[in-house]
Amino acid sequence: EKPVQVSNVFGQDEMIDCVGVTKGKGFKGVTARWHTKKLPRKTHKGLRKVACIGAWHPSRVSFTVARAGQKGYHHRTEINKKIYRIGAGIHTKDGKVIKNNASTEYDLTDKSITPMGGFPHYGEVTNDFVMLKGCCIGSKKRVLTLRKSLLKHTKRSALEQIKLKFIDTSSKMGHGRFQTPADKLAFMGPLKKDRIKEEVAAAGAAATSATA
Q1: Mean pLDDT, residues 28-40 taken together
Q2: How far apart are CA 18 and CA 70, in angstroms?
Q3: Which helix (H) or strand (E) holds 211?
Q4: Of 113, 151, 108, which is closest to residue 130 (Cα–Cα)?
Q5: pTM to 2 decimals?
Q6: Where are the domains of the chain?
Q7: Which CATH homologous superfamily contains domain 6-22+74-179?
């Protein structure tokens, strides 16, 4: 097998399609599944229902009538997702680890695309990545297929050249305040957990030297 880099397939500012499976919601009623109008408050035997599911004849239920059943976990294709950035993963160059794949021309801070504390339910991004405008189908870590667009794009939004000025890398859990660990250290000063970590490391080093 031959590894194929994403930068060799797609390009900056390209419109692509995203194919995947949506988040599963389980067995749902008609109100949640088809957004039908709720019946009045005093309705007999429940109000989150379809009042009439069809005429006497033809004596069967049409497929167009909203019914309860599985919601989510469906195969879907979303079209026209614009690529805002194709970034290189964490790599070594001239003996130095390069992590600044979230820097821009206007924000020269040396920072990684991974936000403070990692992406919730995912973790750290170490490989090459694609940044798309908007959201994607499915849950975290779900496999997606990215494909070339089948359409000819003529709209101004599709042909626009994107120049990112700033990428927010603050924590996605709670109210993120700091862009990098260096920012946090400069503002907060040394924390108790850092002091404990240093003490444990010093104690371990002392024990090792005493044994030797």
Answers
A1: 97
A2: 22
A3: helix 192-211
A4: 113
A5: 0.85
A6: 6-22+74-179, 181-212
A7: Translation factors (2.40.30.10)
